[in-house]
Amino acid sequence: METDSDSEGSHISATLPRDATPPQPPPPPLLSSNKVRVEATISSRSNTTSKLKRASKQKPLKSKNETKTKPAEEDPLPIPIPSADFSILPGSSVKIHNRSNSISMHSSVENLMQGSEENTMHPAPSTPLPESTGGSDCVEGEGTFAGYVSPEANSRTAHVNNLTKSMGTLPNLIRSIAHQPPAKRPKSAGEGNFVRLNINENLYRKRKAKSKTEGEADTNACDEDGLVVDTSQQQERYVRDESSDENLTKLLKLTHGYESFREGQLEAIKQGVAGRSVMLVLPTGFGKSLCYQLAALILPGITLVVSPLVALMVDQLRQLPPMIQGALLCSNHTSEEASMTLQQLREGAIKVLFVSPERFLNAQFMSMFQTTPPISFVVVDEAHCLSEWSHNFRPSYLRLKTSLIRARLNVDCILAMTATATIKTLNVVILKDLLMLMKSTPLTEVRNIIIHCKFQSETDLLSKHLCDNNISAKSYHSGIPVKVRSRTQERFCSNKIRVVVATVAFGMGLDKSDVIHYSLPENLEEYVQETGRAGRDGGLSYCHLLFDELTYFKLHSFLYSDGVDEYAVNRLLGQIFSNSMNLHGKICSLVKETASRKLDMKEQTSPELLAAKDTLAATMLKKSEIKQGNYTFDMPSVANSVGITSVDILSNWLQRLKSQGEITFEVKEPAFCFTIVKKPEDFCCLATHVTRWLSEVENCKVRKLDAMFNAATFAATFAAKACTKMDGCSGSQHTQCLQMKILDYFTKDENAPCEFPTKMEHGRQSKEKL
Ligand SMILES: Nc1ncnc2c1ncn2[C@@H]1O[C@H](COP(=O)(O)OP(=O)(O)OP(=O)(O)O)[C@@H](O)[C@H]1O
Question: What residue stretches are annotated with the Helicase ATP-binding domain (predicted)?
């Protein structure tokens, strides 16, 4: 039996919901969890040298049980239930290309999507990339793009960098790093994808036949659908006949209202229209969607867009120009809705269909296209999800093999899209403003300044840039060793360092600092907390917020990409509950793939002495294996055998011994520990609730970011207007306005975007509005 597992918590019907208010959050998942360490190694104090050991890599675990299945009537388009077997997870995804090889036009996308076992991915450092030989069709823009790496997004960025590096000179890679401010699309008749200015294949064919019989005399005919439709249809035809730059640009003007293409767009569209697969790497918000939209309009059949999150699909569906009919299929569709969509597909009334990657596992879904117009184009959005390096690695993306798409859907042309997250350059506009600010009064007179950044890499780059510009600055984030961090804080407090460029990790309890936000905080709570570090000594302090739309778009996209899909939740549940019969009530663990650092030890204690002093130590040593002179034991099993209900107790105990200089230890495989309170009766149902809950958390974050952005924009606009009026900038205007917005946010219920869902209501069936 199969189940669907789209990554939504939402109900999406053919007509999009306009109300963006998410419902009250459901209660939390049933699991009680505590943070953890799993395996610890204790060494005696005689080991005086401090070594850095790497934790062993997580091995894929196999579960014995299969997950429960969902009743057929609940899902009109079932797909196989994810098994609890995690062994496939760290499978293959991206092949690192030897860049000195010349690769055929289709190779990068194919390789990106092959995902076969032979194609096992190698981590970047162990895969040297020879110097590029150039000479490819890769289009690379000039200019700059602000790249950000957050603690959360580090892996994604690293991956994207590796991906872009490795793909840098591939022939079918289109890439641009040029920054252009996002332009507003001209207003169209409606926003939803089902607002009719109908261009469909039937209509198109009928008109084509008609125009043939009328000797092509109808080219500028205007019917009740409006001139725009006819003209764009006509232009569409021209482009089909000849996809010249001129024709495509005219079509762009007609469909989107833009005068010209941004760098990389035209090339991507031309490749797609010519039936050639393309890997498109453009900065966030640069207009990747437009590339498949135009190609979809020109190509004869259906365009299938694979997107990892329903929230993203909904966003993209909304952004389709009115003349491109779109729809999406997800698991929360009722059978009537799904069949209505299918019917529209059959009639050729849908040009672009958004689906989750899991759909490709569904034989019924794949066979559906035997009765519809052919699929001419497959777009894989957020293609970085395909790599296990990626922060949002999606196992289901691994199954999106070109071979599968070709064999089952008979599609040759694939467009894989991902955003660049380069850290090579910072946002130059903001950087200039920052330097100007730092070199002008009153900041030149201020002793302590904290500059808040979102991402660790930003803090490093920015502090370097400030130093290069004669402003001494240090970076501070959780990736910096504790000793160095403490020293930075000490020196900052004693006025030896004037500027610290930091992530959220810095500044707690500090006063007398002025605060600059180099990036937009994710919400007003964060903003208030961080600016709250200024002026705590009662003196006058200054807070500056530098932001632009690009940062906002980027944060927006990161928030969305944090989502977890039901498929993954299902697998996690499968993993957690696979042995629950034997482990009921016991502390269990899931190993995290991270390395840990070995800690120094001050004095020597013999294990026997330790055991004699402490029963816990005795148990621990009894349960240990001696490996290379170190006692290695499994923390949950020690905790269980002494009847401790939380590994935190054991962890604290180890920390205490360490602080007393009794032991040194190394946590080998940090893991999340959990206790199974009750085994759920219906996995699918729980997975749906968990996914919905996570999706609501995600929506809530997005709305909070929107509130932050709106408040900042409002304040900036207000200040700018006041400046014009008063012929001079008034900081107090700015302050008052922002204060007003913040007050509104925290006091007026209707303005509060939402509280983060902390609870997940069990059994909740309500449908989410997006
Ligand atoms: N040629 C163009 N001229 C002006 N504006 C454009 C052009 N192409 C796209 N845009 C606009 O840029 C904005 C961002 O586009 P889009 O959402 O497609 O970016 P994206 O690269 O897909 O972003 P993400 O990485 O977040 O998915 C949209 O408002 C779009 O209409």
Answer: 269-439
